[in-house]
Amino acid sequence: MFTLPLHGDRNSPFRKEASDLDVPLPDGCGDADYLAALDNTLTMQGMQSREQRVFDWCHARRLPLVLMMAGGYGVRIEEPVAVQVNTYRVALDFWRRWGNG
After folding, report:
1. Is 92 part of any domain?
2. Model confidence over 51-98: pLDDT tens digits?
3. pTM of the full predicted structure?
4. Domain span at 81
5. Structural domain count of the chain
6. 6 pairs with which residues across the strands?
7. Spatial separation of the C-alpha atoms in residues 56 and 6, rounded to whole Å
C-alpha cells in the first residue's frame, strides 16, 4: 500500500507518522491549492512508477524501447517539460542498470 497524505503542516499536535510521500500544506490552504498539490504529486510520482514498470517489463522480455515526446497538458510549459525530463531520466537510469553504459 502506498500512502500519500496531503495535510496541514502545522495541524497535528503530535509527531506525525511518516508516510510514503508526505505533502504538507500551508495554513489557509484553499481547495485550488489542495487540488494543485494533489495533481503535482500524483503526476510525477505516478508517471515515474509507470515508467519503471514499463521499463522493467520490457527488460525482462529483452524488448527494445523507443521514447517519444507526448503530452503537454500542463498550464505552464515547465510542467510538461519536467514530465518529459523525468521519463528520460528514468530511462537513462534503467539503461545504465541494464549494463549498457
Report:
1. yes
2. 888 888 888 998 888 887 766 566 778 877 888 888 898 889 888 988
3. 0.55
4. 6-97
5. 1
6. 23
7. 30
Q: For residue 84, tell me if it sits in a domain.
A: yes
Asked if 5 and 23 count as a contact pair (C-beta separation under 8 A), the reply is: yes
Cell match 505516478: residue?
Answer: 46
Does residue 1 belong to any structural domain of this protein? no
> Is 60 a member of any domain?
yes
**What phi, psi does 96 have (nearest 5°)?**
-65, -40
CA 61 to chain centre: 25
Total number of residues shown for the chain: 101
Could you tell me the CA-to-CA distances from 58 to 27, 62, 65, 79, 98 in Å, in that order?
A: 45, 6, 7, 27, 11
Residue type at position 70: A
